[in-house]
Amino acid sequence: MVNTTIKTTKSQEIFAAAQNLMPGGVSSPVRAFKSVGGQPIVFDRVKDAYIWDVDGNQYIDYVGTWGPAICGHAHPEVIAALHEALEKGTSFGAPSVLENVLAEMVIDAVPSIEMVRFVNSGTEACMAVLRLMRAFTNREKIIKFEGCYHGHADMFLVKAGSGVATLGLPDSPGVPKSATMNTLTAPYNDLEAVKALFAENPNQIAGVILEPVVGNAGFITPDAGFLEGLREITREHGALLVFDEVMTGFRIAYGGAQEKFGVTPDLTTLGKVIGGGLPVGAYGGRRDIMSMIAPAGPVYQAGTLSGNPLAMTAGIKTLELLQRPGTYDYLDQITQKLADGLLEIAQATGHPACGGHISAMFGLFFTSGPVHNYEDAKKSDMAKFGRFHRGMLERGVYLAPSQFEAGFTCLAHTQADIDQTLAVAKEVMSSL
Ligand SMILES: Cc1ncc(COP(=O)(O)O)c(C=O)c1O
């Protein structure tokens, strides 16, 4: 059912109206398709691994609302749990047992987490963890990596990958120099650069934060020894190691990258999957560090809707579904078939390409690679990616509208979906 002439009249009308109402017509920049060209499609509904747009076109979805939909969209058990929770009210602003349940699940799953605080987004989690890093160490500088995204807080908008890179902005107007002057950056996978920063800033660096597998500069994996090396260097300098697992948490393994690679950071940020499609973020880690958070300790951080019963419910049910036997084997198997298939097709059709996958996260760059960091990722042929993206979209496959985003699979993708995606990719790459 390959459809090359999709009708998108309603999408165009709605998006045109949206542009008068909201900056760029969207609530988050990358959704506007700026880096791939053409108009975004406007969604009507989502179910399992599929999206339907307002003109009635159906797509196989590899964005999964940017990560949360790992069990498939609108999973019947998540929806049923939400219906039940809804009857009890939408927000408490007070303790609920649901928070205990999700907290225990997160603590059991993620090696570094002994205590957790729930917030409403990944951005919030990263902002809060930064304050905590600084408070615990009594130091102000931090190291982040070029191309890693940790939400849109001022202190992190330096070489921040994804949306920022997509728009070609070095960082953002409105971010004062004073907010970023303590943010040091190094190329991803470069331990020597990290060592040099520690040497140049003795006893001043609170810690190192990173995406343990990068998803915001395209899909980039850590070289052998990189995560271990960071663990050693931070320990040696009395600094903290923070894994931003907003994207990788519960996605590349149930216990995230730290389980997958066997490296335990001091603190971890989470988001996306733990909210099962509702707004949740979290940060957690060693008990001695987390005990500094108010009201247990002096580091202030709060939230009206934090620990919201609907969000907790969706998170709990999503994690329960992920605990069922075979889930990560299935995710790995279909994603490997997809990632390998895309590379084989690129090779067969004469396009230099590289990429790969870990569990339910994958990527493809239009450069022969290898891609170890953001500078390497930028060698990808963006114009070609734009044409590839449009060709796939027009034939019913929805990929992230940026070369600098990882792709996501989910439990609802069938073998037939993967086969169809590869058949479409072959057709598109043959005509690029
Ligand atoms: C690694 C990482 N950290 C933080 C964030 C920010 O999360 P949110 O968009 O929920 O604020 C994202 C979002 O994509 C992310 O991928």
SSE layout:
Elements: H1 9-21, E1 43-47, E2 50-53, E3 58-61, H2 76-86, H3 97-109, E4 115-119, H4 122-137, E5 141-145, H5 162-166, H6 177-180, E6 183-186, H7 191-200, E7 205-210, H8 226-236, E8 240-244, H9 256-261, E9 267-270, E10 281-285, H10 287-290, H11 309-323, H12 327-348, E11 354-358, E12 361-365, H13 374-377, H14 382-394, E13 397-398, E14 407-408, H15 415-430
Parallel strand pairs: 3-13, 5-6, 5-7, 7-8, 8-9
Antiparallel strand pairs: 1-2, 2-3, 4-10, 9-10, 11-12, 12-14
Helix pairs in contact: 2-11, 3-11, 12-15
Bound molecules: pyridoxal-5'-phosphate.
Residues 66, 121-123, 126, 149-151, 211, 215-216, 244, 246-247, 271, 281 line the site of pyridoxal-5'-phosphate.
Modified residues (N6-(pyridoxal phosphate)lysine): 272
Subcellular location: Cytoplasm
EC number: 5.4.3.8
Give your account of this protein's structure.
- The protein is globular and about 60 Å long.
- Helices cover 38% and strands 14% of the residues.
- 52% of the residues are buried.
- Strand 11 and strand 12 form a beta hairpin.
- The chain folds into two domains: 160 residues, Aspartate Aminotransferase, domain 1 (Alpha-Beta Complex), CATH 3.90.1150; 248 residues, Aspartate Aminotransferase, domain 2.
- Strands 4-10-9-8-7-5-6 form a seven-stranded mixed sheet, sandwiched between helices. A four-stranded mixed sheet has the order 1-2-3-13.
- It contains 15 helices and 14 strands.
- The chain is α/β, with parallel strands linked by helices and 432 residues long.
- Helix 2 runs antiparallel to helix 11, helix 3 packs parallel to helix 11 and helix 12 packs parallel to helix 15.
- About 1% of the residues have low confidence.
- The site of pyridoxal-5'-phosphate has 16 residues, from helix 4.
- Its cofactor is pyridoxal 5'-phosphate.
- Its EC number is 5.4.3.8.
- It is found in: Cytoplasm.
